[in-house]
């Protein structure tokens, strides 16, 4: 049985480990952080394609009871006018729809399920290097330990070390010039239907929110921030700064955004938004990258986690069916590259439409109702290429897909 070292225990890592185990491999997971060090504040939308991919390896049930269904998004102009409703993908055959859940819950659920299936997870193991042997690859960690395996999968996110080890000239992530701040609040009645996101193209700041079944409001904002900030700069500016900044940016819009931020009791943190349009080399020798390490997408697409899950399942199928790992890596790239890069490009386009000047805003607000009706209405049928991606686990991957 071939052993596979999986670097990273975010979304792609535990999923690929579970899929590889099902495909007959012996995976182990190596994560740099201590357990429980996930981003506590943020939440993600998992679209139907991501849930469906988890279902291919019977892992979707680990999300049972987490988060809540969010099958629709209502887009609004800064004045509060409804521009239309878009689905977050057609429901799966059993009625399953897109779901919003805390990022930390998603991470924990996937890891716990991997552990329940007998996959070893080591924390505090930050990969810093690899050395290749004829028969395998040796992962070298910052704490001085090593781990030898037949193959190594880099599921180590947007700042991937494995990507740089595969190709030292790999392009860096691209800063998408806005920030992401999210939170949870309880305030008086707001204009929102459960299950529906309100996506507001505010005059100075994009603001999204939805209401959980218990009445809590889950919100996020994308304040523009032209120059890429360092993590230190963001930390030093601190919660009070972000609160004041959002209050200022959201003041000009009539909706409840400002009130929601004011009613948020916990500290606020800001994340810079990045993507990576294309990574020329996904694999070398016995190493390959998947998930954000290979194709990070701006959160505007809401597809990063779902793409990471799809990648994980598809890579395991390719390794199961191809005669050797080189053929498997080539088959995997053929299956995945066009799709994931299309998602990244779509995310970048949507991200850029969030902050525009007054003239473009007027045109956007006039055209958007037609666009939504045409492309994204009725459950998002025209975005079908993105949301309706079904993986059949038992189907063999053709030698030349
Ligand atoms: C603010 C924000 C909002 C988002 N919203 C959404 C959304 O609504 N929907 C959606 O689908 N996606 C969303 N995303 C994107 C989504 O979170 C990512 O696409 C997804 O987490 C990618 O999974 P991954 O496993 O590839 O990487 P990650 O989840 O980043 O996991 C990488 C893991 O590798 C570990 N690691 C890193 N380097 C090393 C190393 N050298 N050695 C060992 N371990 C290492 C990290 O600690 C981490 O645990 C959002 C992202 C952000 C930042």
The small molecules bound here are:
flavin-adenine dinucleotide
Task: Outline the biggest β-sheet.
Answer: 7 strands, mixed
Q: How many structural domains?
A: 2
Strand order of the largest sheet: 6-5-14-15-16-13-17
Radius of gyration: 21 Å
CATH architecture of the largest domain: 3-Layer(bba) Sandwich
Assign an overall shape: globular
Structural class: alpha/beta
Structural notes for this entry:
The protein has 401 residues and is α/β, with parallel strands linked by helices. It has two domains: 3-173 and 276-387, 3-Layer(bba) Sandwich (FAD/NAD(P)-binding domain); 174-274, 2-Layer Sandwich (D-Amino Acid Oxidase, Chain A, domain 2), CATH 3.30.9. It has helices at 12-22, 48-56, 103-116, 161-166, 231-250, 257-262, 292-295, 304-321, 325-352, 358-380, 384-387, and strands spanning 3-7, 26-30, 43-46, 68-69, 72-77, 82-87, 99-102, 121-122, 127-132, 137-141, 146-149, 151-154, 174-185, 196-201, 206-211, 217-222, 270-275, 283-284, 287-289. The strands form four sheets. A seven-stranded mixed beta sheet has the order 6-5-14-15-16-13-17. A six-stranded mixed beta sheet has the order 8-2-1-12-19-18. The chain has a three-stranded antiparallel beta sheet with strand order 3-7-4. The two termini are 25 Å apart. The relative contact order is 0.18. The mean pLDDT is 91. The chain binds flavin-adenine dinucleotide. Residues 7-13, 30-33, 42, 44-45, 125-127, 155-157, 161, 180, 271, 291-293, 299, 302-306, 308 line the site of flavin-adenine dinucleotide.
């Amino acid at each position: 049985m071939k052993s596979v070292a999986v670097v990273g225990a975010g979304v792609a890592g535990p999923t690929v480990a579970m899929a590889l185990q099902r495909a007959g491999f012996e995976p182990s997971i190596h994560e740099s952080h201590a357990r429980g060090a996930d981003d506590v504040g943020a939440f993600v939308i998992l679209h139907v394609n991501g849930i469906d991919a988890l279902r291919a390896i019977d892992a979707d049930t680990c999300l049972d009871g987490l988060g809540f269904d969010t099958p629709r998004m209502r887009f609004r102009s800064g004045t509060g006018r409804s521009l239309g409703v878009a689905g977050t993908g057609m429901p799966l055959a059993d009625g399953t729809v897109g779901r919003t859940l805390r990022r930390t819950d998603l991470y924990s659920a996937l890891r716990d399920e991997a552990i329940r299936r007998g996959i070893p997870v080591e924390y505090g193991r930050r990969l810093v290097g690899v050395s290749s042997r004829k028969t395998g690859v040796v992962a070298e960690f910052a704490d001085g330990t090593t781990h030898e395996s037949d193959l190594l999968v880099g599921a180590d996110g947007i700042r991937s070390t494995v990507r740089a080890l595969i190709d030292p000239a790999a392009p860096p992530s691209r800063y998408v010039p806005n920030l992401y701040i999210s939170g949870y609040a309880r305030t008086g009645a707001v204009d929102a239907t459960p299950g529906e996101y309100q996506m507001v193209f505010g005059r100075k700041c994009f603001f999204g929110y939805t209401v959980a079944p218990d009445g809590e409001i889950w919100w996020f904002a994308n304040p523009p921030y032209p120059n890429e900030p360092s993590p230190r700069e963001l930390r030093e500016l601190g919660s009070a700064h972000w609160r004041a900044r959002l209050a200022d940016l959201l003041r000009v819009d009539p909706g409840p955004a400002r009130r929601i931020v004011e009613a948020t009791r916990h500290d606020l943190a800001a994340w810079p938004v990045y993507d990576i349009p294309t990574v020329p080399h996904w694999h070398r020798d016995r190493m390959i990258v998947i998930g954000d390490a290979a194709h990070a997408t701006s959160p505007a697409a809401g597809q990063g986690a779902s793409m990471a899950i799809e990648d994980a399942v598809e890579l395991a199928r390719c390794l199961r069916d191809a005669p050797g790992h080189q053929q498997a890596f080539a088959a995997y790239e053929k299956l995945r590259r066009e799709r994931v890069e299309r998602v990244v490009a779509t995310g970048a386009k949507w991200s850029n439409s969030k902050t525009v000047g007054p003239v473009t805003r007027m045109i956007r607000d006039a055209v958007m109702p037609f666009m939504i009706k045409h492309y994204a209405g009725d459950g998002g049928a025209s975005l079908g290429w993105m949301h309706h991606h079904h993986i059949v686990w038992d189907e063999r991957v053709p030698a030349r897909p």
